[in-house]
Amino acid sequence: MRDNHGREIDLVPDSEAPGRIVGALARLLTGLRLIGVVDAEAWRVTLKTGLDSMPAARRRALELLLARRTATTTDLATTLGLPTVTTRRLLEDLTAHGVLQRESQGEGKPNRWLIEPWAVERYRAATLPEMSEDPIYLQHEHGRDDKRERSAARERTPVSGRTAGEPRCVSQPC
Q: How far apart are alpha carbons 40 and 157 in whole angstroms?
């Protein structure tokens, strides 16, 4: 939490994991599987829900660093289209949670930010095992049209778990 006057970090609250958010995501994944959603689609929806719970600008900064591994405050601010001060605050927040490390480049020079190896490994573990498409940070790197790809995937694996034209069974198991 930041102080209202100087915007300095006063308190770093404990991470939600393995608390409420992890429990809620686990229940979502289980619920999707129970209603017949194909595992790959259930995992995609759960992952998207978890990542969407992050503030958008913080998530974009994280994904850029996942792709680049290291960058300066100025480089990230330019790429994100945000003021340098705002970008530095996003990066400080991620550093306070242990996701990034800051290297000072000296007086008057922009800091260099590096993503922690554990963060890369956990992100990879969450995005690669059950997903057939590139993880989000690689899609950015390869310039893929994320919305078009996901729309096509949804058409291939409907939420019901049925293929198009398959009967819907209401009163008895199919």
A: 9
Residue pLDDT, tens place only, 22-68: 889 999 999 999 999 999 899 889 988 988 888 899 999 999 999 99
Give the dihedral of Cα atoms 131, 129, 33, 140; nearest 10 deg.
-30
> Within a 13 Å sphere around the CA of 130, how many CA atoms are in the beta-carbon half?
12
Task: Quote the CA–CA distance of 43 and 126 in Å, as a whole number.
Answer: 9
Q: What DSSP line would sit under 28-90, residue for residue? A: HHHHHHHTT--HHHHHHHHHHHHHHTS-HHHHHHHHHHHHHSEEEHHHHHHHHT--HHHHHHH
pTM passes above 0.70: no
Give the integer Cα–Cα distance in Å for 16 and 14.
Answer: 6
Furthest C-alpha separation in the chain = 72
In the chain the domains, ranked by start, together with CATH numbers, are 56-156 (1.10.10.10)
**Whose CA is closest to 2, among 112, 86, 71, 110?**
86
Tens-digit pLDDT profile for residues 82-141:
999 999 999 998 998 889 999 998 998 989 999 999 999 988 887 765 444 555 555 544
CA 114 to chain centroid, in Å, comes to 17
The whole-angstrom separation of Cα 41 and Cα 109 is 45
